[in-house]
């Protein structure tokens, strides 16, 4: 909070008055980043595929994180221990909406629980982001790691059936 006050050239008390709880500051920081990422995600228009939307979303978040690595690291590591970070987050809700819309368009299986996939993707993002923030220099490219995670979620882990093979049953 002191660093924020210094950078904003305001008194420390001003920062604390505006954000009396650390969690409030972190929530606002995350909200602003999420809004920028959502805007970027939908920049391709309504005909964008689910994968295109998610890749643009994570490309924007990766760019924001890389552009302000010291601040991002401080906020990310500061939020890792807060219970709010690991509860059903607004990010999970946002992802669930993206997956639900993809279901309506027929892009993903209609039996998939969009809320569950949203939680899985948001949780993956938080874990990857924390690992990225935990080392200097950054141990991997954040955008590449999240794009790989998106592909893993969309493609699954089961082997693809060959021409002579029956698909693996879905229990």
From TrEMBL:
Annotated coiled-coil segments of the chain: none
Keywords annotated in UniProt: DNA-binding, Transcription, Transcription regulation
Domain of life: Bacteria
Pfam families xref list: TetR_N
Limits of the HTH tetR-type domain: 1-28
Gene3D superfamilies given in the database record: Tetracycline Repressor, domain 2
Molecular function terms from GO: DNA-binding transcription factor activity; transcription cis-regulatory region binding
Name of this protein: HTH tetR-type domain-containing protein
